[in-house]
Amino acid sequence: MDLDYLLAIPSWNSVGILVTFFTYLAIAGSLIPAKLVPGVTLQDGSRLHYRCNGLLSMLLLALLLGVGAKMGLLSLTVISERGLELLSATLFFSFLRLALYAAGCKSRNQSSSLKPYVTGNLIHDWWFGVQLNPSFLGIDLKFFFVRSGMMGWLFINLSVLAKTIQSATLSHSMILYQMFCLIYILDYFFYEEYMTSTWDIIAERLGFMLVFGDLVWIPFTFSIQGWWLLGNKVELTTAAVIANCFVFLIGYLVFRGANKQKHDFKKNPKALIWGKPPKVVGGKLLASGYWGIARHCNYLGDLLLALSFSLPCGISSPVPYFYPIYLLILLIWRERRDEARCAEKYKEVWVEYRRLVPWRILPYFY
């Protein structure tokens, strides 16, 4: 039997790692002090409240792993050495979404969070989900899964970093990639409450698309650059390093700035934007700051960040650029979905907003 095939078969060790990881996140998320953030008001007038303590949970887990490694209880390189096993085991966990689908179809709860939206199309309902905010033992699963994916991405990267240090192959490219990802992930958890106002949380039902995206796609494809650098040495010029840092900085400022402006506007529609009162279309749509430059300007920041994660790998192979290319396709598809939904929801107000802000993502190009 082919060795690569064997390495892709989930082992009890890989299943144990995942179960331990999910169990830790469930316990830490429930017990560690948290900022309780109210979600958006749903159609029935109810609001979920989210425990935002991801940063503390992540730092505590990093501390526990560091102590465990120092005491010889575990290996920091285990993830990098069992990557394919963990990938297939996580994929298996994602298919357990079938149990959620079955439970959702049988639900008699009529609240906005748990009311089943069944179209009768099995594939559609399984892929997009039938419930908006299912929970398990009081834990909101949608919020839990995205936290798992983002944290999983970090610990995959750190394990890859530990492997390069162990093998004495640490390069400037790896340091640059790790630094950018670490800043991005720390920023995500520092502003974790902003996630509660994103489209995925407020509007997408929990189907296989979100579960697979959070548990498999985010941690294992966003870390492709690290895996690639583990087996390929890249020497960057000083000019390339400076240019890479510039792309990351611009991407970060646009991404974080746009999301902060949107979040602040939703909390307080009169909050100043760049020192001025916000320009609002129809009393609903923000047309100031980044949102007066492009209708989906946060996507531009996200794309620049994704590109900055890949640039440390040089241009000798297209493999490290899988993530930004995929993200470009995804965000254009998502932007088209957003545009159609907003046109239906806001009607004439959306027409006026499009007139004021004609560009979709990149001003003067798209």
UniProtKB/TrEMBL annotation:
Segments passing through the bilayer: 12-34, 55-80, 86-105, 144-162, 174-194, 206-230, 236-255
KW Lipid biosynthesis (keyword) present: yes
Keywords, ordered alphabetically: Lipid biosynthesis, Lipid metabolism, Membrane, Oxidoreductase, Steroid biosynthesis, Steroid metabolism, Sterol biosynthesis, Sterol metabolism, Transmembrane, Transmembrane helix
Membrane topology: Multi-pass membrane protein
Pfam families: ERG4_ERG24
Keyword Cell membrane: no
InterPro entries in UniProt: ERG24_DHCR-like, Sterol_reductase_CS
Localization, UniProt: Membrane
Domain of life of the source: Eukaryota
Family: Belongs to the ERG4/ERG24 family.
Protein known as: Delta(14)-sterol reductase
Upper classification of the organism: Eukaryota, Viridiplantae, Streptophyta, Embryophyta, Tracheophyta
